[in-house]
Amino acid sequence: MDEVKLLVTNIKNKKLKPIYFLMGEEPYYIDKISDYIESSILTEEERGFNQMVLYGRDVTVEDIVSNAKRFPMMAEHQVVIVKEAQDLSRTIEKLASYAENPQPTTILVVNYKYKKIDKRKALYKTLKKTGVVYESKKLYENQVADWIRRVLSSKGYQISPKAAQMLVEFLGTDLSKINNELEKLQIILPKDTQISPEHIEENIGISKDFNNFELRKAIGDRNAVKAYKIVNYFAENPKDNPMVVTVSLLFNFFSQLLHFHGLNDKSPRNVASALKINPYFVNEYVTAARNYPMRKVSTVVASLRTFDVKSKGVGANAVPQGDLLRELVADILN
């Protein structure tokens, strides 16, 4: 995120480079940077003659170079944006010759999503000398809640740890999808609001009481009544609560619990750091560790592996997923 801020600041201050090669697994920042360049380099009057958008599936590298070598008309720069450039992955190395001597009045933006070029080859090495190479890396699940907090904080909002975790568990690590939901909340809620689980439930449709976060907590607390209420809700709403996701989240939780048991230093700060969790959730692991000794945790992890296979239809084709989930919870709690 700091790298993106610096890049945008340099563009804003007219410290421009002739090529911006934006690549990587996470498309969110690639789109953000590209959109910023598209909207900010040229005035509205200049864009008609000096800004063009090309698509990788419709052009060749030679077409891109030909357009990039044009001179601007009645403007200081022209902007050429290549979207979906990953469709040119087999020939993209041909861009290296242009990158060695790029047109100084052209700003060429290459959006190379979900992939990255070989850093050992000529194109990458040349781009590093003459332009900007930005690699947008996928965030790990345990990093997304912090990302949500930073994004909202920059817009004048706060969010509770539980509400952030609900978004992560429901939407995964797709930053574009999460950002769309955050923008909806910003339209509805006034600034300085602390976004709560109730806000998430009312405006996004994620239940604050019947979700994987609450199931994990109920199991950790050995609260059988609450755990079975949640799995019964999941059984009645299987499309919104796929078992494969629940099993995966529980597997991660008990794997972390196994790690917790192995820690010599169980101070809250060290636990949060070692398990890569928000300090807010440390007490959940402390409680769960009391309820599940290391030997039991090992048994649960093995059981979760078995149910993971079953949830994907191996050896349990005729068993409804709701029944499988109830059986899993019973297996963990017994």
What characteristics describe this protein?
alpha/beta, two-stranded parallel ribbon, single chain, 5-stranded parallel β-sheet, 17 helices, elongated, 334 residues
Instruction: Say how many strands there are.
Output: 7
C-alpha-based Rg, rounded: 25 Å
Major sheet strand order:
2-3-4-1-5
N-to-C CA distance: 45 Å
Residue-averaged pLDDT: 93
Q: In terms of per-residue confidence, which ranges show pLDDT below 50 for 5 or more consecutive residues?
A: none
Overview of this protein structure:
There is one protein chain. With 334 residues, this protein is α/β, with parallel strands linked by helices. It has 17 helices and 7 strands. The mean pLDDT is 93. The chain has a 5-stranded parallel β-sheet, with helices on both faces. It has a two-stranded parallel ribbon with strand order 6-7. The longest helix is centred in the last third of the chain and has 19 residues.
Please give a quick description of this structure.
By secondary structure, the protein is an alpha/beta fold. The chain has 17 helices and 7 strands.
What order do the helices and strands come in, and which of them pair?
Elements: H1 2-12, E1 19-24, H2 27-40, H3 44-50, E2 51-55, H4 61-68, E3 78-83, H5 96-100, E4 106-113, H6 122-130, E5 132-135, H7 141-154, E6 158-159, H8 161-171, H9 175-188, E7 194-195, H10 197-204, H11 212-220, H12 224-236, H13 243-261, H14 268-275, H15 282-291, H16 294-311, H17 321-333
Parallel strand pairs: 1-4, 1-5, 2-3, 3-4, 6-7
Helix pairs in contact: 1-2, 7-8, 8-10, 9-10, 11-12, 12-17, 13-16, 16-17
